[in-house]
Amino acid sequence: MGEVLICPRCGRVVRSVHSFRSNGRVYFRFYHGDGSRCYVGPAEYVYATRTQWRTLTIYGAVVPDREEEYIRGAVEALRELRGGLDQ
Questions:
Q1: CA-CA distances (angstroms) from residue 33 to 12, 38, 39, 66?
Q2: Could you give the strand order of the β-sheet that contains 25-31, starting from the edge strand earlier in sequence?
Q3: 4-35, pLDDT tens digit by residue?
Q4: What is the Cα–Cα distance from 39 to 22, expressed in whole angstroms?
Q5: For the CA atoms of 10, 25, 57, 69, what is the dihedral angle to 10 degrees?
Q6: Is the pTM of this model over 0.85?
């Protein structure tokens, strides 16, 4: 049996995850047992990613372990900044 997925919007258990495409990007909706659904956003936030450090990609709520990726990106960004300061 798989791990239970909890909706970040409403806190209820997710029965299924559906993706759809719009303008070349992938978006997600979480469906609940009572037939209701929650829009949880894109797989990746393009604008937010573009305006941050090159090493940090901002992911949507459906990406597992995104917090670990944020930490890795932040560490890499700090290394880049330190390298720039040492020169």
A1: 9, 12, 15, 26
A2: 16-22, 25-31, 37-42
A3: 889 989 999 999 999 999 988 899 999 999 99
A4: 14
A5: 60
A6: no
Query: How many other β-carbons are positioned within 10 Å of the β-carbon of residue 4?
Result: 7
If we measure between CA atoms, which residue out of 39, 37, 43 comes closest to residue 25?
A: 43
Question: Which H, E and C letters describe the chain, residue by residue?
Answer: CCCCCECCCCCCECCEEEEEEECCEEEEEEECCCCCEEEEEECECHHHHHCCCCCCCCECCCCCCHHHHHHHHHHHHHHHHHHHHHC
